[in-house]
Amino acid sequence: MIRSIFQNLARRWSELSLAVQFLVAGGFGLLVVMLLVGAWVTTQIRDGVTRNSAATTALYVDSVIAPLLPDLRKSEELSDSVKQALDETLGQGALGKRLVSFRLWRRDGTVLYSKDSSLIGRRFDLNDHLRSAFQGNVAAQFDTFDENEEKERASGEPLLEIYNPVREPWSGDVVAVTEFYEIATDFKATLASALLSSWLIVAGTTLTAFLLLSGIVLRGSRTIDDQRGALRRQVSELQGLVAQNSALRQRVQRASRRATALNERYLRRIGADLHDGPAQLVALAALRMDSPVFTGDDHWEGNRATEVAMIRKTLEDAMQEIRGICNGLVLPQIETAAATEILRLAVKEHERRTGTSVALTLPGQLPEPGASEKISIYRFVQEGLNNAYRHGRGKDQAVAAGMKGGRLFVEVSDGGPGFDPATRVEGLGLAGLRERVESIGGQFETLTGPQGTRLVISLSVEEQA
Fold first, then answer.
1. Are 456 and 410 in contact (CB under 8 A)?
2. Which residues pair with 452 in a beta bridge?
């Protein structure tokens, strides 16, 4: 259960952006650092202010009390006159108002004098501050009381407890320690102001560092996100290109297989055209050459000239059909011609052969396509107009070309009765054209209906320099 909870938290954490992770982790870390540094700084400030204030007060008190004390190295107790002098000094004047209590300690822990007379002569265990003071150090603590200081705690005033060593004038040795509680209202306000200032400085410094680091991390995170997004887009585009290349490769393979079959069909059609046309005529001429007119006697002399004329006519018809077949197979010189010239040439050739008219619509200028595109355009117009003449009866034949979406389009249309694409299989010429156009990255579209038929191809062309 606990493991799944941690795994869930880790998963959610990994889903956060780098900037959010830094804001959370960095903010928490800087907060901990701020608290530790702030606590250490305020402790140092508290100790320093307490020591300085205690040293100043101790010096003042020592200057007032020291002249009243006897030689404490020799005296085990204070005389009544000394006690009376201390009572008078500590009970009136500015010093008396500042000190809530006062004790004079002997090294063995005996109270030689106290404003509370019940403590005089009593012996207590030395605490750490007394030991430090007997070693010659001024010790102090603020608003801290032990079990023997109920009177001071009950005063309700902020008190600064000071332990000041009393030194022998000629030797400098510590012979006693004075312990007194000073009313520290001003000290408390000063200390609070110093602590507040230190916390504000630490917090402001931490916040500034956090904001600067956050700005750097946010900018870096934004840059990483932008680069990650760009990388994802590039990967997506690359995947699309790979898929497109795969599809194109498959199309090329299919087109190659279909082109092989179409070429075979073309060869069969050419063979059939030669067999049914010129071959039959030549065979007829050969049969006539074997007629009795040429092999018999002079009885057929009068019909020989007529037979020769018929053979000549038959051979001329065969030659004409052969030229027609050749004209359909051999392209004119279109490699160096512009796209508009190719379209005009195909239209004029169709008009010459069929005796029909074709409406040609061309823009002022077309880009210069490559050789493969030029051949495809010529063959498309040639086959399209042939179909318009055969199936559309040559009605409203038209050819148009232009640019659309950065691609060159050519359209051949007629006003014939149209056909049903679902029931009619594409002819050999159109099927070959479709394969030719698609093999060079073009698109072939057939639109037909009662109002006529439109054949449209679009090619991606780059202008040749």
1. yes
2. 449
Q: Are 158 and 183 in contact (CB under 8 A)?
A: yes
289-325, pLDDT tens digit by residue? 766 666 655 555 556 677 777 777 777 777 877 776 6
**Cα–Cα distance for residue pair 84/42, rounded to 1 Å:** 42
| Domains of the chain in sequence order | 78-183 (3.30.450.20), 277-330 (no CATH), 332-465 (3.30.565.10)
Closest CA to 113 of 183, 64, 65, 162: 65
pLDDT at residue 151 tops 70: no
Residue appearing with tokens 């009970």: 91
Distance CA 17, CA 222 (A): 10
In the β-sheet with 139-142, what is the strand arrangement from edge to edge? 111-114, 99-105, 174-183, 159-167, 139-142
3-state secondary structure (DSSP) of residue 449: strand
One-character DSSP codes across 162-174: EEEEEE-TTT--E
Of the chain, the end-to-end C-alpha distance in Å amounts to 72
Q: Are 333 and 342 in contact (CB under 8 A)?
A: no
Radius of gyration of the chain (CA): 59
